[in-house]
Amino acid sequence: MCPEVIHKDADAARAANLRDYEQACRSFSWQRARAELAGMPGGGLNIAFEAVDRHVEQGRGEKVALRCVGRDDSVLNITYGQLAAQSAQFANVLKALGVGRSDRVFTLLGRCPQLYAVALGTLKNGSVLCPLFAAFGPEPVRQRMQLGDAKVLVTNEALYMRRVEANRGRLPGLEHVVLVGPVAGEHPGTMRYDEAMAAADDRFATVPTDPQDMALLHFTSGTTGTPKGAVHVHEAVVAHYATAGFALDLHPDDVYWCTADPGWVTGTSYGIIAPLARGATMVVDEGEFDARRWYRILAEQRVSVWYTAPTAIRMLMRATPQAGPDELPGRFDLSALRFIASVGEPLNPRAVLWGRDVLGLPVHDNWWQTETGAIMIANFAACEIRPGSMGRVLPGVEAAVLARGEDGRVLLDAQGRVTVLDAGAEGELALRPGWPSMFRGYLHDDARYAACFADGWYLTGDLVSRDRDGWFWFVGRGDDVIKSAGHLIGPFEVESALMEHPAVAEAGVIGRPDPVAGEVVKALVSLKIGFAAGPDLEAELLAFARRRLGPAVAPREIAFDQNLPKTRSGKIMRRVLRARERGLPEGDVSTMEDLRS
Ligand code: ATP
Ligand code: MG
Fold it and tell me: What residue ranges carry the coiled-coil annotation (predicted)?
Protein backbone atom coordinates (compact mmCIF):
# COMPACT_ATOMS: atom_id res chain seq x y z
CA MET A 1 0.00 0.00 0.00
CA CYS A 2 1.90 3.08 1.14
CA PRO A 3 5.58 2.25 1.45
CA GLU A 4 6.32 5.20 3.67
CA VAL A 5 6.67 4.55 7.38
CA ILE A 6 6.42 7.39 9.82
CA HIS A 7 8.95 7.21 12.59
CA LYS A 8 7.96 9.18 15.59
CA ASP A 9 11.50 9.55 16.79
CA ALA A 10 15.02 8.88 15.72
CA ASP A 11 15.84 5.28 14.85
CA ALA A 12 17.38 4.45 18.21
CA ALA A 13 14.35 5.72 20.07
CA ARG A 14 12.14 3.81 17.70
CA ALA A 15 13.95 0.56 18.38
CA ALA A 16 13.52 1.21 22.08
CA ASN A 17 9.85 1.90 21.48
CA LEU A 18 9.41 -1.37 19.69
CA ARG A 19 11.12 -3.13 22.56
CA ASP A 20 8.72 -1.31 24.87
CA TYR A 21 5.81 -2.68 22.85
CA GLU A 22 7.08 -6.21 23.05
CA GLN A 23 7.85 -5.76 26.72
CA ALA A 24 4.35 -4.36 27.31
CA CYS A 25 2.81 -7.36 25.56
CA ARG A 26 4.86 -9.76 27.66
CA SER A 27 4.21 -8.12 30.98
CA PHE A 28 0.56 -7.22 30.46
CA SER A 29 -2.37 -9.15 31.83
CA TRP A 30 -5.98 -8.14 32.26
CA GLN A 31 -5.74 -9.09 35.93
CA ARG A 32 -2.91 -6.61 36.42
CA ALA A 33 -4.82 -3.90 34.56
CA ARG A 34 -7.78 -4.54 36.79
CA ALA A 35 -5.59 -4.21 39.85
CA GLU A 36 -4.79 -0.64 38.79
CA LEU A 37 -8.44 0.18 39.31
CA ALA A 38 -9.76 0.40 42.84
CA GLY A 39 -12.73 -1.95 42.88
CA MET A 40 -15.61 -1.01 45.13
CA PRO A 41 -14.97 -0.79 48.82
CA GLY A 42 -16.49 -4.00 50.13
CA GLY A 43 -16.47 -5.72 46.71
CA GLY A 44 -18.03 -5.42 43.26
CA LEU A 45 -16.90 -3.53 40.20
CA ASN A 46 -18.84 -0.59 38.81
CA ILE A 47 -17.87 1.51 35.81
CA ALA A 48 -19.08 4.76 37.37
CA PHE A 49 -17.20 4.18 40.57
CA GLU A 50 -13.96 3.70 38.64
CA ALA A 51 -14.65 6.65 36.37
CA VAL A 52 -15.48 9.27 38.99
CA ASP A 53 -15.79 8.29 42.65
CA ARG A 54 -12.38 6.62 42.77
CA HIS A 55 -10.74 9.95 41.91
CA VAL A 56 -12.70 11.76 44.58
CA GLU A 57 -11.80 9.14 47.19
CA GLN A 58 -8.16 9.46 46.20
CA GLY A 59 -8.18 13.24 46.67
CA ARG A 60 -8.63 14.40 43.08
CA GLY A 61 -12.15 15.77 43.45
CA GLU A 62 -11.07 19.32 42.58
CA LYS A 63 -9.68 18.34 39.21
CA VAL A 64 -11.69 19.35 36.13
CA ALA A 65 -13.32 16.28 34.60
CA LEU A 66 -15.38 17.95 31.86
CA ARG A 67 -14.79 21.20 30.07
CA CYS A 68 -18.04 21.80 28.20
CA VAL A 69 -17.79 24.22 25.28
CA GLY A 70 -21.26 25.52 24.39
CA ARG A 71 -22.52 26.41 20.95
CA ASP A 72 -22.01 30.04 21.96
CA ASP A 73 -18.39 29.25 22.97
CA SER A 74 -19.16 29.57 26.68
CA VAL A 75 -17.10 27.19 28.81
CA LEU A 76 -18.49 25.26 31.79
CA ASN A 77 -16.03 23.32 33.94
CA ILE A 78 -17.28 20.33 35.94
CA THR A 79 -14.88 18.81 38.45
CA TYR A 80 -14.64 15.14 39.35
CA GLY A 81 -16.20 16.03 42.70
CA GLN A 82 -19.15 17.77 41.02
CA LEU A 83 -19.62 14.93 38.56
CA ALA A 84 -19.60 12.42 41.42
CA ALA A 85 -22.30 14.45 43.19
CA GLN A 86 -24.43 15.00 40.08
CA SER A 87 -24.29 11.36 39.07
CA ALA A 88 -25.23 10.38 42.63
CA GLN A 89 -28.23 12.70 42.36
CA PHE A 90 -29.34 11.12 39.13
CA ALA A 91 -28.92 7.65 40.63
CA ASN A 92 -31.22 8.80 43.45
CA VAL A 93 -33.73 10.09 40.88
CA LEU A 94 -33.83 6.64 39.27
CA LYS A 95 -34.07 4.87 42.60
CA ALA A 96 -36.97 7.05 43.65
CA LEU A 97 -38.75 6.12 40.42
CA GLY A 98 -38.37 2.45 41.23
CA VAL A 99 -35.85 1.94 38.43
CA GLY A 100 -33.35 -0.67 39.51
CA ARG A 101 -30.67 -3.12 38.59
CA SER A 102 -30.53 -4.09 34.92
CA ASP A 103 -33.45 -1.81 33.97
CA ARG A 104 -32.71 0.00 30.71
CA VAL A 105 -32.18 3.76 30.69
CA PHE A 106 -32.01 5.22 27.19
CA THR A 107 -30.52 8.60 26.33
CA LEU A 108 -31.44 10.65 23.29
CA LEU A 109 -29.32 13.72 23.80
CA GLY A 110 -26.59 15.71 22.15
CA ARG A 111 -23.30 16.33 23.90
CA CYS A 112 -24.82 18.36 26.72
CA PRO A 113 -23.28 18.55 30.22
CA GLN A 114 -26.21 16.62 31.77
CA LEU A 115 -25.49 13.57 29.61
CA TYR A 116 -22.51 12.64 31.78
CA ALA A 117 -24.38 12.76 35.08
CA VAL A 118 -27.17 10.71 33.51
CA ALA A 119 -24.82 8.08 32.06
CA LEU A 120 -22.78 7.67 35.21
CA GLY A 121 -25.80 7.90 37.54
CA THR A 122 -27.48 5.12 35.57
CA LEU A 123 -24.44 2.91 36.06
CA LYS A 124 -24.16 3.80 39.76
CA ASN A 125 -27.75 2.63 40.17
CA GLY A 126 -26.88 -0.71 38.57
CA SER A 127 -29.14 0.10 35.62
CA VAL A 128 -28.14 -0.31 31.96
CA LEU A 129 -27.20 2.66 29.80
CA CYS A 130 -28.32 2.68 26.19
CA PRO A 131 -27.33 5.81 24.21
CA LEU A 132 -29.07 6.69 20.94
CA PHE A 133 -28.04 9.13 18.22
CA ALA A 134 -29.94 12.38 18.75
CA ALA A 135 -30.38 12.63 14.99
CA PHE A 136 -32.35 9.38 14.71
CA GLY A 137 -35.86 9.75 13.31
CA PRO A 138 -38.95 8.54 15.23
CA GLU A 139 -38.97 5.03 13.81
CA PRO A 140 -35.32 4.10 14.56
CA VAL A 141 -35.78 5.51 18.06
CA ARG A 142 -38.92 3.46 18.64
CA GLN A 143 -37.43 0.26 17.19
CA ARG A 144 -34.37 0.44 19.41
CA MET A 145 -36.31 1.32 22.53
CA GLN A 146 -38.63 -1.56 21.90
CA LEU A 147 -35.84 -4.03 21.16
CA GLY A 148 -33.87 -2.78 24.16
CA ASP A 149 -36.81 -2.91 26.65
CA ALA A 150 -36.53 0.79 27.47
CA LYS A 151 -37.94 1.66 30.90
CA VAL A 152 -36.62 5.21 31.08
CA LEU A 153 -35.79 7.75 28.39
CA VAL A 154 -33.77 10.88 29.07
CA THR A 155 -34.09 13.45 26.29
CA ASN A 156 -34.97 17.11 25.78
CA GLU A 157 -38.24 18.74 24.87
CA ALA A 158 -37.54 19.28 21.18
CA LEU A 159 -36.32 15.73 20.61
CA TYR A 160 -39.21 14.31 22.61
CA MET A 161 -41.77 16.16 20.52
CA ARG A 162 -40.14 15.35 17.20
CA ARG A 163 -39.04 11.78 17.78
CA VAL A 164 -40.96 10.15 20.60
CA GLU A 165 -44.28 11.70 21.56
CA ALA A 166 -46.29 10.27 18.66
CA ASN A 167 -44.98 6.76 19.31
CA ARG A 168 -45.38 6.78 23.06
CA GLY A 169 -48.49 4.60 22.92
CA ARG A 170 -46.51 1.92 21.09
CA LEU A 171 -43.96 1.72 23.89
CA PRO A 172 -45.90 0.36 26.87
CA GLY A 173 -42.70 -0.59 28.70
CA LEU A 174 -41.47 3.00 28.67
CA GLU A 175 -42.49 4.14 32.15
CA HIS A 176 -40.59 7.38 32.58
CA VAL A 177 -39.49 10.20 30.29
CA VAL A 178 -37.13 12.76 31.79
CA LEU A 179 -36.74 16.07 29.94
CA VAL A 180 -33.40 17.84 30.24
CA GLY A 181 -33.12 21.63 29.89
CA PRO A 182 -35.90 24.19 29.50
CA VAL A 183 -39.41 22.82 28.93
CA ALA A 184 -41.94 25.23 27.44
CA GLY A 185 -44.99 23.04 26.80
CA GLU A 186 -47.08 20.52 28.71
CA HIS A 187 -46.14 16.90 28.02
CA PRO A 188 -48.18 14.40 29.98
CA GLY A 189 -46.17 11.49 31.29
CA THR A 190 -42.88 13.37 31.41
CA MET A 191 -40.88 14.88 34.23
CA ARG A 192 -38.28 17.61 34.38
CA TYR A 193 -34.68 16.73 34.96
CA ASP A 194 -33.88 19.97 36.80
CA GLU A 195 -36.72 19.55 39.27
CA ALA A 196 -35.98 15.89 39.91
CA MET A 197 -32.28 16.62 40.41
CA ALA A 198 -32.96 19.55 42.76
CA ALA A 199 -34.97 17.25 45.01
CA ALA A 200 -32.37 14.45 44.99
CA ASP A 201 -29.63 13.87 47.54
CA ASP A 202 -26.11 14.11 46.16
CA ARG A 203 -24.91 11.09 48.12
CA PHE A 204 -25.63 7.62 46.83
CA ALA A 205 -24.18 4.26 47.76
CA THR A 206 -23.17 2.94 44.35
CA VAL A 207 -24.66 -0.47 43.71
CA PRO A 208 -21.85 -3.02 44.09
CA THR A 209 -22.41 -4.55 40.68
CA ASP A 210 -20.81 -7.84 39.75
CA PRO A 211 -18.14 -7.48 37.03
CA GLN A 212 -20.38 -9.61 34.79
CA ASP A 213 -23.54 -7.53 35.29
CA MET A 214 -24.92 -5.91 32.16
CA ALA A 215 -23.94 -2.24 32.05
CA LEU A 216 -24.21 -0.97 28.48
CA LEU A 217 -26.37 -1.73 25.49
CA HIS A 218 -24.99 -0.42 22.22
CA PHE A 219 -26.55 -0.65 18.84
CA THR A 220 -24.08 -1.23 16.00
CA SER A 221 -23.74 1.38 13.25
CA GLY A 222 -25.94 -0.54 10.82
CA THR A 223 -23.38 -0.29 8.04
CA THR A 224 -24.09 -3.80 6.82
CA GLY A 225 -27.74 -4.20 7.78
CA THR A 226 -30.17 -3.95 10.68
CA PRO A 227 -28.34 -2.73 13.78
CA LYS A 228 -27.73 -5.24 16.53
CA GLY A 229 -27.90 -4.51 20.26
CA ALA A 230 -24.54 -5.51 21.73
CA VAL A 231 -24.52 -6.20 25.47
CA HIS A 232 -21.53 -5.12 27.59
CA VAL A 233 -20.80 -5.67 31.27
CA HIS A 234 -19.20 -3.65 34.06
CA GLU A 235 -15.77 -5.22 33.79
CA ALA A 236 -15.49 -3.58 30.34
CA VAL A 237 -14.07 -0.60 32.24
CA VAL A 238 -10.82 -2.53 32.65
CA ALA A 239 -10.44 -2.62 28.88
CA HIS A 240 -11.46 1.02 28.44
CA TYR A 241 -8.88 2.02 31.00
CA ALA A 242 -6.00 -0.11 29.71
CA THR A 243 -6.53 0.43 25.98
CA ALA A 244 -6.76 4.22 26.35
CA GLY A 245 -3.26 4.06 27.81
CA PHE A 246 -1.80 1.96 25.02
CA ALA A 247 -3.66 3.20 21.97
CA LEU A 248 -4.43 6.83 22.88
CA ASP A 249 -1.44 7.47 25.16
CA LEU A 250 -3.90 9.07 27.56
CA HIS A 251 -2.58 10.22 30.94
CA PRO A 252 -4.07 12.18 33.85
CA ASP A 253 -2.44 15.46 32.82
CA ASP A 254 -3.92 15.33 29.32
CA VAL A 255 -6.66 17.50 27.91
CA TYR A 256 -8.52 15.04 25.75
CA TRP A 257 -11.13 15.56 23.07
CA CYS A 258 -13.22 12.79 21.48
CA THR A 259 -15.39 14.04 18.63
CA ALA A 260 -17.57 10.91 18.44
CA ASP A 261 -21.31 11.28 18.84
CA PRO A 262 -22.53 9.98 22.21
CA GLY A 263 -24.94 7.69 20.35
CA TRP A 264 -22.09 5.62 18.97
CA VAL A 265 -20.03 3.15 21.01
CA THR A 266 -16.93 5.34 20.66
CA GLY A 267 -18.84 8.18 22.30
CA THR A 268 -19.29 6.05 25.43
CA SER A 269 -16.18 3.87 25.62
CA TYR A 270 -13.80 6.72 24.78
CA GLY A 271 -16.12 9.72 25.07
CA ILE A 272 -17.18 9.05 28.67
CA ILE A 273 -15.65 6.06 30.42
CA ALA A 274 -11.99 5.77 29.34
CA PRO A 275 -10.93 9.41 29.75
CA LEU A 276 -12.56 9.64 33.17
CA ALA A 277 -11.22 6.28 34.29
CA ARG A 278 -7.76 7.61 33.42
CA GLY A 279 -8.38 10.81 35.33
CA ALA A 280 -7.91 13.17 32.37
CA THR A 281 -9.74 16.42 31.59
CA MET A 282 -12.17 15.95 28.71
CA VAL A 283 -13.38 18.61 26.31
CA VAL A 284 -17.08 18.28 25.47
CA ASP A 285 -18.11 20.26 22.40
CA GLU A 286 -21.82 20.89 22.07
CA GLY A 287 -21.41 22.37 18.59
CA GLU A 288 -21.38 20.80 15.15
CA PHE A 289 -18.49 20.26 12.77
CA ASP A 290 -16.99 23.44 11.47
CA ALA A 291 -13.34 23.56 10.50
CA ARG A 292 -12.64 26.95 12.06
CA ARG A 293 -14.42 26.02 15.27
CA TRP A 294 -12.53 22.75 15.55
CA TYR A 295 -9.13 24.36 15.08
CA ARG A 296 -10.13 26.96 17.65
CA ILE A 297 -11.12 24.33 20.20
CA LEU A 298 -7.88 22.42 19.65
CA ALA A 299 -5.90 25.62 20.14
CA GLU A 300 -7.84 27.41 22.89
CA GLN A 301 -8.50 24.37 25.05
CA ARG A 302 -4.88 23.24 24.61
CA VAL A 303 -6.05 19.78 23.59
CA SER A 304 -3.18 17.29 23.90
CA VAL A 305 -4.84 14.02 22.81
CA TRP A 306 -7.45 14.02 20.07
CA TYR A 307 -9.61 11.05 19.06
CA THR A 308 -11.63 11.47 15.89
CA ALA A 309 -12.75 9.61 12.76
CA PRO A 310 -11.66 9.35 9.12
CA THR A 311 -14.75 11.20 7.95
CA ALA A 312 -13.87 14.14 10.23
CA ILE A 313 -10.27 14.15 9.02
CA ARG A 314 -11.46 14.08 5.41
CA MET A 315 -13.84 16.98 6.09
CA LEU A 316 -10.94 18.95 7.52
CA MET A 317 -8.79 18.02 4.53
CA ARG A 318 -11.52 19.18 2.20
CA ALA A 319 -12.00 22.48 4.04
CA THR A 320 -8.35 23.24 4.81
CA PRO A 321 -5.91 21.41 2.59
CA GLN A 322 -2.82 23.45 3.50
CA ALA A 323 -1.10 24.77 6.62
CA GLY A 324 0.84 27.79 5.37
CA PRO A 325 0.99 30.76 7.79
CA ASP A 326 -1.98 32.40 6.04
CA GLU A 327 -4.03 29.23 5.75
CA LEU A 328 -6.67 28.44 8.34
CA PRO A 329 -4.81 25.72 10.31
CA GLY A 330 -1.64 27.80 10.27
CA ARG A 331 -3.38 30.57 12.15
CA PHE A 332 -4.00 28.43 15.26
CA ASP A 333 -1.51 27.37 17.87
CA LEU A 334 -1.72 23.58 17.96
CA SER A 335 1.46 23.19 19.98
CA ALA A 336 -0.28 21.42 22.89
CA LEU A 337 -1.44 18.62 20.60
CA ARG A 338 0.80 15.57 20.94
CA PHE A 339 -1.33 12.63 19.82
CA ILE A 340 -4.09 12.13 17.24
CA ALA A 341 -6.00 8.91 16.72
CA SER A 342 -8.83 7.84 14.44
CA VAL A 343 -11.34 5.00 14.30
CA GLY A 344 -14.45 3.83 12.50
CA GLU A 345 -13.32 3.28 8.96
CA PRO A 346 -10.05 2.68 7.24
CA LEU A 347 -7.88 5.76 7.35
CA ASN A 348 -6.45 6.45 3.94
CA PRO A 349 -2.64 6.91 3.87
CA ARG A 350 -3.22 10.38 2.40
CA ALA A 351 -5.08 11.37 5.60
CA VAL A 352 -2.28 10.13 7.86
CA LEU A 353 0.25 12.20 5.95
CA TRP A 354 -2.06 15.22 5.78
CA GLY A 355 -2.15 15.13 9.59
CA ARG A 356 1.61 15.15 9.73
CA ASP A 357 1.93 18.02 7.26
CA VAL A 358 -0.97 20.23 8.31
CA LEU A 359 -1.62 19.44 11.99
CA GLY A 360 2.02 18.71 12.72
CA LEU A 361 1.30 15.13 13.80
CA PRO A 362 0.43 11.97 11.90
CA VAL A 363 -2.90 10.34 12.65
CA HIS A 364 -2.78 6.97 14.42
CA ASP A 365 -5.43 4.67 13.03
CA ASN A 366 -6.95 2.04 15.28
CA TRP A 367 -9.51 -0.68 14.84
CA TRP A 368 -12.34 -2.04 16.92
CA GLN A 369 -16.09 -2.68 16.81
CA THR A 370 -19.20 -2.17 18.88
CA GLU A 371 -18.89 -5.84 19.74
CA THR A 372 -15.30 -5.61 21.00
CA GLY A 373 -16.20 -2.66 23.23
CA ALA A 374 -12.65 -1.32 23.17
CA ILE A 375 -9.71 -0.78 20.82
CA MET A 376 -8.14 -4.07 19.75
CA ILE A 377 -5.60 -3.10 17.09
CA ALA A 378 -3.75 0.19 16.88
CA ASN A 379 -0.86 2.15 15.50
CA PHE A 380 0.60 2.68 18.95
CA ALA A 381 1.93 5.82 20.39
CA ALA A 382 5.12 3.92 21.06
CA CYS A 383 5.61 2.37 17.62
CA GLU A 384 6.11 3.57 14.11
CA ILE A 385 3.00 4.29 12.07
CA ARG A 386 2.46 2.41 8.85
CA PRO A 387 0.09 4.70 6.93
CA GLY A 388 -2.91 2.78 5.65
CA SER A 389 -2.55 0.08 8.29
CA MET A 390 -4.76 -0.48 11.34
CA GLY A 391 -1.71 -1.19 13.47
CA ARG A 392 -0.74 -4.01 15.80
CA VAL A 393 -2.73 -5.95 18.37
CA LEU A 394 -2.92 -4.48 21.82
CA PRO A 395 -1.36 -6.31 24.74
CA GLY A 396 -3.83 -8.88 26.03
CA VAL A 397 -5.45 -9.34 22.61
CA GLU A 398 -4.89 -12.33 20.35
CA ALA A 399 -5.81 -11.96 16.69
CA ALA A 400 -5.56 -14.22 13.66
CA VAL A 401 -6.37 -14.13 9.96
CA LEU A 402 -8.60 -17.06 8.98
CA ALA A 403 -9.14 -18.66 5.58
CA ARG A 404 -12.52 -18.12 3.94
CA GLY A 405 -14.31 -20.44 1.56
CA GLU A 406 -15.94 -19.74 -1.79
CA ASP A 407 -19.16 -18.77 -0.03
CA GLY A 408 -17.34 -15.97 1.77
CA ARG A 409 -17.64 -17.64 5.17
CA VAL A 410 -14.78 -18.81 7.36
CA LEU A 411 -13.62 -22.21 6.18
CA LEU A 412 -14.21 -25.08 8.62
CA ASP A 413 -12.85 -28.60 8.22
CA ALA A 414 -14.82 -31.75 9.06
CA GLN A 415 -13.89 -31.33 12.73
CA GLY A 416 -15.10 -27.73 12.73
CA ARG A 417 -11.57 -26.33 12.85
CA VAL A 418 -10.48 -23.11 11.18
CA THR A 419 -7.32 -22.51 9.12
CA VAL A 420 -5.07 -19.73 10.40
CA LEU A 421 -3.33 -17.98 7.51
CA ASP A 422 0.28 -16.83 7.36
CA ALA A 423 1.51 -13.28 6.97
CA GLY A 424 0.58 -11.68 3.67
CA ALA A 425 -2.58 -13.72 3.04
CA GLU A 426 -6.00 -12.09 3.09
CA GLY A 427 -8.71 -13.58 5.26
CA GLU A 428 -11.20 -12.86 8.00
CA LEU A 429 -9.96 -11.13 11.12
CA ALA A 430 -10.70 -13.22 14.21
CA LEU A 431 -10.08 -12.54 17.89
CA ARG A 432 -9.68 -14.96 20.77
CA PRO A 433 -12.40 -14.06 23.32
CA GLY A 434 -11.21 -13.24 26.81
CA TRP A 435 -10.78 -9.47 27.03
CA PRO A 436 -13.12 -7.73 29.49
CA SER A 437 -15.08 -5.52 27.08
CA MET A 438 -16.03 -8.38 24.77
CA PHE A 439 -19.78 -8.25 24.11
CA ARG A 440 -21.80 -10.89 25.92
CA GLY A 441 -24.57 -11.21 23.38
CA TYR A 442 -26.87 -9.48 20.92
CA LEU A 443 -29.95 -8.67 22.95
CA HIS A 444 -32.82 -11.03 22.08
CA ASP A 445 -30.86 -12.57 19.21
CA ASP A 446 -28.93 -15.60 20.40
CA ALA A 447 -28.68 -17.14 16.95
CA ARG A 448 -26.92 -14.09 15.50
CA TYR A 449 -24.54 -14.10 18.45
CA ALA A 450 -23.76 -17.80 18.10
CA ALA A 451 -23.01 -17.30 14.40
CA CYS A 452 -20.12 -14.97 15.34
CA PHE A 453 -17.99 -17.80 16.74
CA ALA A 454 -16.10 -20.74 15.31
CA ASP A 455 -13.48 -23.03 16.82
CA GLY A 456 -12.92 -20.75 19.81
CA TRP A 457 -12.57 -17.57 17.72
CA TYR A 458 -14.80 -14.52 17.48
CA LEU A 459 -15.28 -13.75 13.78
CA THR A 460 -15.28 -10.02 13.08
CA GLY A 461 -16.68 -10.02 9.54
CA ASP A 462 -13.77 -7.85 8.35
CA LEU A 463 -11.20 -8.94 5.78
CA VAL A 464 -7.59 -8.10 6.52
CA SER A 465 -4.03 -9.23 6.01
CA ARG A 466 -1.13 -9.12 8.45
CA ASP A 467 2.37 -8.19 7.38
CA ARG A 468 5.42 -10.06 8.59
CA ASP A 469 6.09 -7.56 11.36
CA GLY A 470 2.57 -7.90 12.76
CA TRP A 471 0.80 -4.81 11.36
CA PHE A 472 -2.75 -5.47 10.18
CA TRP A 473 -4.08 -4.07 6.88
CA PHE A 474 -7.77 -3.62 6.25
CA VAL A 475 -9.08 -5.03 2.97
CA GLY A 476 -12.83 -4.52 3.37
CA ARG A 477 -15.87 -5.70 5.19
CA GLY A 478 -16.69 -9.24 4.26
CA ASP A 479 -19.83 -8.05 2.47
CA ASP A 480 -18.09 -5.22 0.61
CA VAL A 481 -15.37 -7.18 -1.13
CA ILE A 482 -15.66 -7.18 -4.92
CA LYS A 483 -15.15 -10.28 -7.01
CA SER A 484 -14.05 -9.32 -10.48
CA ALA A 485 -12.82 -11.79 -13.10
CA GLY A 486 -11.49 -14.10 -10.41
CA HIS A 487 -9.81 -11.32 -8.38
CA LEU A 488 -10.90 -10.35 -4.89
CA ILE A 489 -10.73 -6.59 -4.62
CA GLY A 490 -10.96 -4.65 -1.38
CA PRO A 491 -12.73 -1.31 -1.84
CA PHE A 492 -10.40 0.45 0.60
CA GLU A 493 -7.35 0.06 -1.63
CA VAL A 494 -9.18 1.55 -4.60
CA GLU A 495 -10.68 4.37 -2.53
CA SER A 496 -7.30 5.24 -1.06
CA ALA A 497 -5.69 5.35 -4.51
CA LEU A 498 -8.41 7.69 -5.79
CA MET A 499 -7.96 9.94 -2.77
CA GLU A 500 -4.34 10.50 -3.82
CA HIS A 501 -5.73 12.59 -6.68
CA PRO A 502 -5.97 16.28 -5.78
CA ALA A 503 -9.60 16.56 -6.93
CA VAL A 504 -10.98 13.73 -4.81
CA ALA A 505 -12.42 14.40 -1.36
CA GLU A 506 -14.01 11.01 -0.73
CA ALA A 507 -14.68 7.82 -2.62
CA GLY A 508 -17.00 4.83 -2.20
CA VAL A 509 -16.15 1.79 -4.28
CA ILE A 510 -18.52 -1.07 -5.12
CA GLY A 511 -18.90 -3.94 -7.56
CA ARG A 512 -21.26 -3.34 -10.49
CA PRO A 513 -22.79 -6.57 -11.83
CA ASP A 514 -21.20 -7.55 -15.12
CA PRO A 515 -22.15 -10.52 -17.32
CA VAL A 516 -18.55 -11.34 -18.16
CA ALA A 517 -16.47 -10.49 -15.10
CA GLY A 518 -19.17 -11.14 -12.48
CA GLU A 519 -18.53 -7.68 -11.07
CA VAL A 520 -16.52 -4.72 -12.23
CA VAL A 521 -15.21 -2.00 -9.99
CA LYS A 522 -17.23 1.21 -9.89
CA ALA A 523 -16.22 4.26 -7.89
CA LEU A 524 -18.47 7.02 -6.64
CA VAL A 525 -16.47 10.09 -5.94
CA SER A 526 -17.08 13.40 -4.20
CA LEU A 527 -14.90 16.31 -5.24
CA LYS A 528 -13.03 18.98 -3.36
CA ILE A 529 -14.13 22.57 -3.69
CA GLY A 530 -12.93 24.09 -6.97
CA PHE A 531 -13.20 20.94 -9.10
CA ALA A 532 -15.99 20.33 -11.57
CA ALA A 533 -17.47 16.93 -12.41
CA GLY A 534 -17.45 16.00 -16.08
CA PRO A 535 -16.18 13.55 -18.69
CA ASP A 536 -12.67 15.04 -18.72
CA LEU A 537 -12.20 14.58 -15.01
CA GLU A 538 -13.72 11.11 -15.20
CA ALA A 539 -11.23 10.09 -17.87
CA GLU A 540 -8.38 11.59 -15.88
CA LEU A 541 -9.39 9.75 -12.70
CA LEU A 542 -9.80 6.46 -14.55
CA ALA A 543 -6.32 6.80 -16.02
CA PHE A 544 -4.88 7.91 -12.68
CA ALA A 545 -6.35 4.88 -10.87
CA ARG A 546 -5.23 2.54 -13.62
CA ARG A 547 -1.65 3.76 -13.33
CA ARG A 548 -1.67 3.22 -9.58
CA LEU A 549 -3.63 0.01 -9.28
CA GLY A 550 -3.24 -1.78 -12.59
CA PRO A 551 -6.08 -2.77 -14.91
CA ALA A 552 -7.36 -5.70 -12.84
CA VAL A 553 -8.13 -3.60 -9.79
CA ALA A 554 -8.73 -0.09 -11.14
CA PRO A 555 -12.34 1.12 -11.51
CA ARG A 556 -14.00 0.77 -14.91
CA GLU A 557 -16.48 3.47 -14.18
CA ILE A 558 -16.53 6.62 -12.11
CA ALA A 559 -19.62 8.55 -11.11
CA PHE A 560 -19.68 11.82 -9.21
CA ASP A 561 -21.78 12.16 -6.07
CA GLN A 562 -21.26 15.00 -3.61
CA ASN A 563 -23.47 13.30 -1.00
CA LEU A 564 -22.14 9.79 -0.51
CA PRO A 565 -24.49 7.95 1.87
CA LYS A 566 -22.97 7.62 5.33
CA THR A 567 -23.94 6.27 8.71
CA ARG A 568 -24.23 8.76 11.54
CA SER A 569 -20.92 7.45 12.80
CA GLY A 570 -19.42 8.60 9.50
CA LYS A 571 -18.99 5.37 7.56
CA ILE A 572 -19.63 5.22 3.84
CA MET A 573 -22.58 2.86 3.29
CA ARG A 574 -21.43 0.79 0.35
CA ARG A 575 -24.44 -1.49 0.65
CA VAL A 576 -26.68 1.52 -0.12
CA LEU A 577 -24.50 2.41 -3.11
CA ARG A 578 -24.75 -1.21 -4.26
CA ALA A 579 -28.53 -1.27 -3.87
CA ARG A 580 -28.86 2.00 -5.82
CA GLU A 581 -26.63 0.59 -8.54
CA ARG A 582 -28.84 -2.47 -8.87
CA GLY A 583 -32.09 -0.52 -8.54
CA LEU A 584 -32.96 -2.43 -5.37
CA PRO A 585 -34.50 -1.12 -2.13
CA GLU A 586 -31.91 0.51 0.09
CA GLY A 587 -32.67 -1.74 3.08
CA ASP A 588 -32.40 -0.51 6.67
CA VAL A 589 -31.29 3.10 6.40
CA SER A 590 -32.24 4.07 9.94
CA THR A 591 -28.65 5.00 10.73
CA MET A 592 -28.08 6.92 7.51
CA GLU A 593 -27.08 10.50 7.99
CA ASP A 594 -29.80 12.84 6.77
CA LEU A 595 -27.93 15.22 4.52
CA ARG A 596 -30.78 17.70 4.51
CA SER A 597 -30.81 18.16 8.30
P1 ATP B 1 -23.00 -3.07 11.50
O2 ATP B 1 -22.29 -4.09 12.33
O3 ATP B 1 -24.36 -2.76 12.03
O4 ATP B 1 -22.97 -3.36 10.05
P5 ATP B 1 -20.69 -1.40 11.85
O6 ATP B 1 -19.91 -2.67 11.76
O7 ATP B 1 -20.26 -0.28 10.97
O8 ATP B 1 -22.24 -1.67 11.64
P9 ATP B 1 -19.45 -0.46 14.25
O10 ATP B 1 -19.33 -1.47 15.33
O11 ATP B 1 -19.66 0.96 14.61
O12 ATP B 1 -20.66 -0.89 13.35
O13 ATP B 1 -18.15 -0.47 13.37
C14 ATP B 1 -17.17 -1.47 13.40
C15 ATP B 1 -16.65 -1.69 12.01
O16 ATP B 1 -16.09 -0.46 11.50
C17 ATP B 1 -15.52 -2.67 11.90
O18 ATP B 1 -15.99 -4.00 11.85
C19 ATP B 1 -14.85 -2.24 10.61
O20 ATP B 1 -15.51 -2.75 9.49
C21 ATP B 1 -14.99 -0.74 10.66
N22 ATP B 1 -13.78 -0.13 11.22
C23 ATP B 1 -13.62 0.39 12.44
N24 ATP B 1 -12.38 0.90 12.59
C25 ATP B 1 -11.73 0.65 11.46
C26 ATP B 1 -10.41 0.91 10.99
N27 ATP B 1 -9.52 1.54 11.74
N28 ATP B 1 -10.09 0.50 9.75
C29 ATP B 1 -11.00 -0.12 8.99
N30 ATP B 1 -12.24 -0.39 9.36
C31 ATP B 1 -12.63 -0.01 10.58
MG1 MG C 1 -20.30 -4.56 12.49
Answer: none
